[in-house]
Amino acid sequence: MKRAKWVKKVTVALFTVILMTVGFFLIRSYCLHQECLARLRSEFQSHIFDNQTKTFIRTKLKPWGLFNTGKMPSITNSDGESVQLNKEGGLKYSGISQEVFWTFSDPFLEQMIRSNLQFAVEYARINELPMREVLSVVRDSLASSIDQVYGEMQRIDQKLRGDGYPSSVTIQDVREKRDVMYSFLNEQYRVKLQAKSKPSVERFYRENQFLFWLISFVGVSGIIWLIRRMRLIGVKQQ
Prior knowledge:
mainly alpha; 7 helices; 74% helix
């Protein structure tokens, strides 16, 4: 009887220690995972939005606001060619000039999407981070940049069509253009995500640490429960 009580106490103590250890690693893994994601969001928000999107808006879109004045500075298109529109003045923002404006940013956005998703792939590999989550963080940052660019284009377009009085005209609907760019972004995201890579145990562990510890916890708990049941059965038979 004393032996049975001793076995029970040892089993409970062992189970408690293992439970606390596995729980600690589960919580630690989860916290590190969330901390890593937060750091990634901050880094890519700065890299994509602060360094690229703001620069594009300032250097490529803002000059269009001066189109009707004839003082619009020259800008560089996606091919690297210098372009200066309405240099002599006299033209108004409408027709072809309006069409040029609304197609001007597309090549830049597409290039921004391709280059940053490729950067995300290389970043994940170099830093041994889960590819899917790094790409997802970058995709979210790029989606935010798309919103910012088209939002700024709406404001400039409304100002030019209103000839300085933006409230006198309705704002341009950009949902269709934005959705097209979202589709391009998501397609490029899928292409990068589905790119073939050599499978490895280390890579699987890095990308599924939380799942690994959860499975370990369930497995260890099951083994301990089974051992305990077998010991109790043995004691009863004695």
